[in-house]
Amino acid sequence: MNKRFLIASGGTGGHFYPGFALGEEFKRQGCEVLFVVRKDDPAAKVLSAHGLHYKEIDFMGLPRSINPVRHFKFACKLVKALRQTRQIVRDFRPEVAIGTGGYISFPLIFTAHFMGVKTAVHDSNARLGLANKVCGKFTDLFMLGLPTPEKVKNGVLTSTPVRAEFCLPADRAAQLKALRLDPTKPTVLVVGGSQGAKDLNGAVAACAKAFSTWQFIHITGERWFESVRGLYAGLSNAAVLPYSHEIYALMKSVDLIICRSGASTLAELMCCKLPAILVPFPHAAANHQYYNAKIFADAGCAQIVPDDAHLPAALAQAFKALVQGSTAEKLATMRAGYDKLLLPNPLTAAHSIAERLKSL
Fold first, then answer.
1. What is the structure's pLDDT at 129?
2. Does the pLDDT of residue 88 top 70, yes or no?
3. What pLDDT is recorded for position 193?
4. Residue 159 — left, alpha, or beta (φ > 0 → left; ψ -120 to 50 → alpha)?
5. What CATH number has the domain bearing residue 101?
6. Domains: count for the chain
């Protein structure tokens, strides 16, 4: 009989893709996998496209306000979600239930624990999320993507799983030519993300105008595409995209990246050993993106630029410091910094995590 695993995953990409990579690994090993996602989560489409089954539950995050109506609504949805999750656990009968962060993990981990199912959580960030802190009280295994100063019961450092695509080779010339860019010129990839990237977008576009010897590939997200494309009007050294299904190939085809510092993104950078200018999302819970970035900056493989009122000038200064003078030597030193991280390999993390979970 194949082993069965329930994975609560979804919400943001940082919570979803580690769970997705783990689910793909279980599927390769012949295990039965069922995902638990929130109602109407876009992640469901990705799961369906890859032949991974899921069940939806109707739940919401804990309100951060004192509005009594929102708290009453949360309580009602919590009761409903616990009832739905109990039925899912009864029907699927998993050996292990896993949460990969975000509020969607709580109903599954809480319910599975009290139904006698082994439980585990994975937190990708250097500062634990609220849901995982609560779930940690009910787990048999707590897996960490990055080192954290917090005391973690049953904790083990595993790194953060990345999609199998990051094992694939990339053809730099083909990738850049497809975007009408010159493969012989130094190129920077910009991944602004979908949350709060307006100021970052403007700051990067200003750099593209000031440093014309470099090429820019700017992935904006659907929300920002039209406005960002307007910022690059008339520039021949830039390609602006709303989204890319081949982000792994682009990361392996450029010389530098400017991006947020979500843990999944950082794990992908590790796979590519890509020098980075990291601009942490300033409104991330517990400022975890800054602490994620600091681990990489301390190792020398990245620089941190705060997303504040001084962002345009600070980003231009950081970029100028990297691209003027002995650029190749500076970037090589940053690539070598990845060897100082002493973190488990993200490319093998899904397999090692799967083995740990099977041993439960």
1. 87
2. yes
3. 64
4. left
5. 3.40.50.2000
6. 2
pLDDT at 1: 64
Q: Is the same domain home to 180 and 258?
A: yes
**In whole angstroms, how large is the CA radius of gyration of the chain?**
21
Q: Are 263 and 343 in contact (CB under 8 A)?
A: no
Question: Which among 197, 321, 313, 206 has a CA at the least distance from the CA of 259?
Answer: 197
Is the same domain home to 72 and 125?
A: yes
Q: How far apart are CA 355 and CA 360, in angstroms?
A: 9
Chain position carrying tokens 């509020």: 103
Mean pLDDT over 13-31 rounds to: 90
The answer to whether residues 281 and 196 touch, using CB atoms and an 8 Å cutoff, is yes
Do you know the residue count of the chain? 360
Q: What is the extent of the structural domain holding 118?
A: 4-159+347-359
> Is there a single domain that holds both residue 143 and residue 183?
no
For the cut 80, the answer to whether the pLDDT of residue 91 exceeds it is: yes
Per-residue pLDDT band for 283 (boundaries 50, 70, 90) equals: confident
Does the structure show a pLDDT above 60 at 26?
yes
Kindly list the strands in the beta sheet with 302-304, ordered across the sheet, starting from the edge strand earlier in the chain: 238-241, 215-219, 187-191, 256-259, 276-278, 302-304
Where residue 285 falls among pLDDT bands split at 50, 70, 90? Answer: confident
Decide if pLDDT at 11 tops 80.
Answer: no
Are 37 and 9 in contact, with CB atoms under 8 Å apart? yes
Instruction: Give every CB contact of residue 290 below 8 A, 6+ residues apart in sequence.
Output: 261, 280, 284, 304
In sign, the C-alpha dihedral spanning 294, 296, 301, 302 is: negative
Q: Per-residue pLDDT averaged across 174-186, rounded?
A: 96
Residues 61 and 188 in one domain: no
- Percent of the chain that is helix, strand, coil (3-state, to 5): 50, 15, 35
Residue appearing with tokens 């802190």: 133
Maximum distance among all alpha carbons in the chain?
A: 63
Token representation of residue 259: 């991006």
Q: Do 80 and 95 share a domain, yes or no?
A: yes
Indicate if 191 and 335 belong to the same structural domain.
yes
